[in-house]
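Appendix B, example 12.
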Amino acid sequence: MRSPLSLLFAAFVILGSAGASPEPRELFNGHNLDGWIIENSGQFSVKNGHLHVDRGTGWLRSKDTFVDFVLTYEVRFLENRANSGIFVRTGSTSHDDENGWPDNGYQVQCMDKSDEGRIFGALIDYGGGPFEELLDQPTLAEVFNPTGEWNTVEVTCEGRFLSVRVNGALITMVEGISNSDGHIGIQGEKGLLEFRKIAVIKR
């Protein structure tokens, strides 16, 4: 008998299978932060070709907005328990508080852990509205790479569906995304980590 996760994924694949995919568009060029806006004093820079997050708060927002897409990126943590997140379908407005994070969107968790709480790859509501989520924590524990090693992540948004793959394995399936479009962003949450090969394919 197929699991609810696999059944939901099968429906998701059917929805997104029509037509050929265009070429990926690089969102990070490895040289500077062209195409991005630093919000609320976030500590983001480029070092050795990587997008460096240096323990600040706030967030880094794409200038453009996206509707349906496949977002891919690689991330590695430079210290144990480093914390960040990837915002998708997120508005440009932020909370007026010490963190300055968005107040209208969703975040894919990007924390150096696979075994407790809101695991790596889980979705968090940042004002975008409630949703239904299925997580495969045992598989994440098998494929997740530890501090200092790169993890490859693929986030697919199509209509009200979202999925997250980590190092090729399906970890997260979500139904009920309310926002139909929005920015892509990177959260600063007092963690030390790096990103590279950030690209998006519009669907």
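The domain at 4-18+26-202 is CATH 2.60.120.560 (Jelly Rolls). The chain has two helices and 15 strands.
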